[in-house]
Write a structure and sequence with these properties.
By secondary structure, this protein is mainly α. The protein is about 70% helix and about 0% strand. The termini are far apart.
Length: about 400
């Protein structure tokens, strides 16, 4: 039993070790999103949410943000104020109304962890992500290969960078991965796993917008296979996210993009004309910044980043080739890729890889396929090398010619 659990335990311990500093060091409040989640957690404990929000931006935990804004205003007096502007704070809050799940969990543990509550929930999400990613890979790969690839993915700088802060990204990625795992089990085992699928998407709908990825994956599978279980997944998935939209509302794609393309300021115009005008420039910046991401990681980490990226691209080719085989798991993973692309394009702006982490489940499968291919190629090469001397051994009475 212990031997069977060892790979999963290793993945958990690696995740715990990687996040250890975040559990014990002071909380980093470098992103204004963190203050919104902190204020929402406090509001769940009875304080008026607007009051809690404005107090958070005036409190000591916002000192780094405020100092950064003061320095930016000194160098560029025409720049719009954000963190010291009540109007900006009130306008931006609309984008967090539909994300109450993580703050609600934080409110539950607030008497114990206080200002560390949102961060603690984020770190728990990171640990759950590690185990869920391992379980997802284990559907097709060996225990230790699954463990190795899961460790590589959770140690990737964007995953760590978005998980070790008081935000919701780790839970978004965990729930999206769990939704894909549940969908795979619906196909492989029974429709009872629809409970996991529905639950993951329902929670995801009040956590982040990552539900696009699993929903697109099963939608593409429905078009590919046209079977009953794919239809059940699509319908139940769509119904799972509907209550959150009806209860909390949802900012439109146009409103999101207008806000992002205005430098995360209230836009002077919310129209598709405005969005289409600024979308190409923002998309070019997104592609350029993504391509150059590894250059900001230091020499050694940057080399590993681009090496891993190259291996992942090779794995994506192998994954796409699996679409023509009768294996739903690989089809599901492959169709998660266009879901991830759509999710990033719907945001359309550089986010320091916060949005791009939705590629992780599909790329984990691609990395595992590339590693499996490499292992098989190496075994084949070694077998051929061992067989060569045997072929050169003379038969009884046979004389081999000397070289040269």
């Amino acid at each position: 039993m212990m031997r069977r659990a060892a790979p999963a335990l290793v993945v958990f311990l690696v995740a715990l070790a990687a996040s250890l500093h975040a559990w014990i060091e002071p909380v980093e409040w470098k992103d204004p999103d963190s203050l919104y989640y902190q204020a929402k957690a406090v509001s769940f404990r009875g304080e008026d949410e607007r009051t809690a929000l404005h107090e958070a931006f005036r409190s000591p935990i916002a000192s780094e943000l405020l100092q950064g804004e003061r320095e930016a205003l000194r160098s560029n007096p025409d720049q719009e104020r954000q963190f010291t502007s009540p109007q900006w704070i009130d306008y931006t809050s609309r984008f967090f109304d539909r994300r109450p799940f993580v703050p609600l969990l934080a409110a539950g543990i607030y008497p114990i962890f206080e200002l560390r509550s949102v961060l603690t929930v984020s770190l728990v999400g990171y640990l759950l992500l590690a185990l869920t990613l391992f379980a997802f890979l284990r559907r097709r790969f060996s225990p230790w290969l699954s463990a190795a690839v899961a460790c590589v993915c959770i140690l990737a700088p964007p995953v760590r960078g978005t998980s070790f802060v008081p935000m919701t990204d780790s839970w978004g990625l965990f729930l999206a991965t769990f939704a894909l795992l549940s969908a795979a089990l619906v196909y492989e085992r029974s429709e009872r796993w629809l409970i996991g699928w529905i639950g993951a998407l329902a929670l995801l709908s009040i956590t982040r917008d990552d539900s696009v990825v699993p929903l697109v994956a099963v939608g593409c599978l429905l078009m590919h296979q046209r079977d009953r279980r794919s239809l059940l997944l699509v319908l139940s998935g769509a119904l799972s996210i509907l209550p959150a939209i009806l209860i909390f509302g949802n900012t439109s794609i146009k409103e999101n993009l207008s806000y992002a393309f205005s430098g995360f300021n209230p836009p002077y115009e919310e129209s598709w004309k405005f969005v289409f005008h600024y979308y190409p420039d923002n998309l070019r910046e997104l592609v350029d910044m993504d391509a150059g991401y590894g250059t900001h990681l230091g020499a050694a980490t940057g080399v590993l980043w681009y090496l891993g990226f190259a291996i992942a691209l090779f794995g994506v080719v192998l994954l796409i080739r699996r679409l023509w085989r009768e294996d739903v798991f690989f089809r599901l993973a492959a169709y998660a890729l266009p879901g991830a692309v759509l999710y990033v394009l719907l945001f359309g702006r550089w986010s320091a890889m916060r949005q791009e982490i939705v590629f992780v489940p599909a790329l984990a499968v691609a990395l595992a396929l590339a590693a499996e291919w490499g292992i098989a190629w190496n075994r084949k090469r070694r077998s051929a090398a061992q067989a060569e001397p045997e072929r050169r051994q003379p038969l009884p009475g046979q004389h081999l010619p000397e070289n040269g």
